[in-house]
From TrEMBL, chains A, B:
Alphabetized UniProt keyword annotations: DNA-binding, Transcription, Transcription regulation
The UniProt record lists the keyword Transcription: yes
Span of domain HTH tetR-type: 6-66
DNA-binding span(s): 29-48
The protein, known as: TetR/AcrR family transcriptional regulator
SUPFAM superfamilies referenced in this protein's UniProt entry, alphabetically: Homeodomain-like (SSF46689), Tetracyclin repressor-like, C-terminal domain (SSF48498)
Keyword Transcription: yes
DNA sequence: CTAGTATGGGAACGATCGCTCCACAAGTTG
DNA sequence: CAACTTGTGGAGCGATCGTTCCCATACTAG
């Protein structure tokens, strides 16, 4: 209808996500965002309303990319479920360190930074958490049904422990803990699953 | 030598700790601190140099009180080590919710908010983490030596898993997850310890 | 009581915060 | 081409940021 945009909205959201991921919500200013996204304030505010809304978009983008990718990696497989789980856990702890900076998981960082103070944020972090748990649950069920995991395994309980371990791993990765110890943790968690 | 202070430094640090704990570093302004601590800027800056240094004091205070209390609770006991561990884990997840607000653990919140960007902060969070691990390690050794835990238990590996689980529990508590599920997690973690 | 010294109160500094506004640019529509 | 619509650039809004400075205050030492 009129003048076309000079930027790709998805790309801009992706870069905003990256910045929020590395620095957190409060430590990221709109000017930082403007520079990183090569966007003037007017374009940014016209497109995204305000910083808070852009942050929600970033959370949604993260869920749609990183989280979804994680779920796919976990689900994909005719491999033994234990191997799939191990690869997935190690990937969680290894992958995000592509630029050398330890940034953990945006959802975990956000949940701890903002706590329960922001309902719109909380809804999104909880939704992301629930997706992870569901993926773990289905993998464990599958593994148990295929006889790769003990028939006596209490899946729901195991999911809680695994999920909690994942959060802990994310924190440790953000804190820069070395990979060897995180790998030990992963293997110990897996051993705890089997009899 | 001169005019005496109208405030107790320890008390002020304690209240600053509380505020940083609830809101995080970046979201807590000097003016917020001034109100909460009933301290004018001049007194605050004269006493603590600047916001960052006050925050380091808060971290140290947290380690000297909350963390130390936690370590004592874990160590204290002629009770079976498994019971001691269970009580401790549940206390970690229950206690901090005294004013209704879920605030998690200051060390975990700080580690995820600031990552590895601030060396002075990182040193303190890592030290706090290491104290927790050491306490867990000695408890597990004791339990194994007393025959309450399997003689085959790989203590170091178990410490990694338990420690990671603790971090995950702290995140979940901050995120407002309900106590029942956290309790399930604790019990599952303990079951994973024994054979 | 006087001199000396550290503190408390609070105005205000420059910088930055999130955000708005408006003139101009760049397209579409007739 | 003119009329219209939407996007861009950037100055700049009021508020707040972390911090400093000055002065009256309240204490100790002699």
């Amino acid at each position: 209808m009129a003048r076309p945009r000079q930027f790709d909205e998805q790309d801009v959201v992706a870069r905003a996500t990256d910045l929020f991921w590395r620095r957190g919500y409060h430590a990221t200013s709109v000017r930082d965002l403007g520079e990183e996204l090569e966007l003037t304030p007017s374009s940014m505010y016209r497109t995204f309303k305000d910083k808070h809304t852009l942050f929600l978009r970033a959370l949604d983008h993260y869920r749609a990319t990183e989280s979804t990718q994680a779920e796919e990696r976990l689900g994909a497989g005719d491999r033994p479920s234990r191997d799939a789980l191990r690869d997935w856990l190690l990937w969680l702890v290894t992958c995000p360190t592509d630029d050398g900076a330890a940034r953990g998981c945006l959802v975990v960082n956000t949940a701890t930074e903002l706590g329960t103070t922001d309902p719109e944020v909380s809804r999104r972090t909880e939704a992301a958490f629930e997706v992870t748990r569901a993926a773990l649950r289905s993998l464990l069920h599958e593994g148990r049904d295929r006889g790769e995991l003990p028939a006596t395994l209490d899946v729901d309980a195991a999911v809680e422990l695994l999920f909690t371990t994942v959060l802990g791993l994310r924190v440790r990765e953000r804190a820069g803990h070395d990979l060897d110890r995180l790998t030990t943790t992963v293997d110990t968690a897996l051993r705890a699953l089997g009899a």
